[in-house]
Amino acid sequence: VRALGDLCAEWWTGDLKLLYVALGLRLRTREPELLASGSYSPLPVEGPDAEHVVAFMREHEGKVLLTVAVRWFVSLLSTPDSLGDLKQRLRDTFVEVPAAQKETVSQSMKFSNVLTGAALQARNENGSLRLRVGEVLAALPAVWLIGSRNVDQNA
To answer: CA 96 to CA 8: how far, in whole Å?
Structure first.
């Protein structure tokens, strides 16, 4: 299996897209209720390159799946093989993650990147839970982040 970095370096070959399809099918098998019954919410994106980012959330029984993707991303790259430019270019662009009713914006949410396994955290920035798109994507054109809400069952 080619390393993810190799696939990103030659994203135009279609191999990276095949990886996304395979991982998406595996995710659908692993989280059928979340994907079939979960609520759907488009997420607000703010920042200088917000028009290049699409984000939405599925949530079911405390599980959360975020999808963050860049559209027209080639226009953000210095050269076609430089997906790494996305991290720098999108560093000041944010996805806002809505807090659950029982949560306050002072809390954070932890996520795991489905593709890389990297741990990420939505942080309280300017009074809402936000993710920096550059950190979330790094050198990928799209990611799925899975996490769960910290819901107190005794509240």
So the answer is: 26
Both tokens of residue 34? Answer: 């979340």
pLDDT value, residue 109: 83
| Per-residue pLDDT reduced to its tens digit, 6-20 | 766 776 777 778 888
Q: How far apart are CA 101 and CA 69, in angstroms?
A: 26
Which tens digits make up the pLDDT trace of 116-148? Answer: 888 888 877 766 788 888 888 887 888 899 988
Q: How far is CA 118 from the centre of its chain?
A: 11
Judged by DSSP in three states, 6 sits in helix
Q: Give the whole-angstrom CA distance, residue 16 versus residue 39.
A: 28
Residue 26: how many other CB atoms lie within 10 Å: 11
Q: What is the DSSP string of 20-76?
A: HHHHHHHHHHH-HHHHHH-EEEE--EESTTGGGEEEEEEEETTEEEEEEEESSGGGG
